[in-house]
Structure of histidine kinase:
Amino acid sequence: MNLFGWVTVVFIVFLGTGIVFMAIVYQEVRRMQRLLAEAIQGNRQVRFYSHLSLLHPIAEQVNILLQQLHIQESNKRRDDEQRRQFITAITHDLRTPLASVLGYLEAVHKGLTNPDKKDEYIETAYHKGLTLLNTLNRFFEWAKLDLHQEQIFPQTINLAETHREVLIEFLPGLEARGIQLIAEIPLVVNVTIDPETVARVIRNLIQNAIDHALDVTMIRVRLDVNKRQTLIEDNGKGKPEVDDDDIFEPFQRQRKSKGLGLGLAISRQLLRMQKGNLYAEPSEEGGLSFIIQWPSA
């Protein structure tokens, strides 16, 4: 075979190989196009792949983009659900005490009550008004956190002293309920944090144990110097299976609970804003333990 023949053969081989390769690329592109159409229609779980190394980088980048879209949409659905719960909770938790306050005041205003009961009705309306105000304050507190408008002013404080101040507030009420308070607080533990955050978080957790733990007779508060942690646990009937994600979701509350289901969510959010954290686990005492991780000094 002469030179021309060899050139012809080589040309035909290269041409055939090119045609086959282009056919394979076309099939891969068509398949990826179908997958892209499926993703556009809403299936963010679809994943791109290719048998051709040439298309691997494109498939990987598209998969990363789809994963980010899936996360954003999941976060949006979660936020929408939380706002729906927020509106529902406002409607329910404000209407009942407001109707009660108006009912008592209307009875006094229209003279529908005995004169000797007038002061009692006014006092009842006053206390229910305070409950309503506390509910509103808790809603606004969560709204500011949700909108990232909460102002914090970190400074170096003695955590131990703040613990003692808050625990003293609860002593009379705990004694009246027959609940023993065991405090294991050292003299000094210095951290840099917003002082109001410390007081709010400890109050929320102790109040949570009082309000939601069944048959609680003991609450222990232990501040660990080395770990910079505070353990708050009770011996009541807490959740035997603790779902760390669920228990700190806003508006999560037990059946027949009078709370709003915001205290734990607010506490964790406040701590995380300042490089701290809050998590829960079953207590060795049989109830529930909350562990506060304070920021580093």
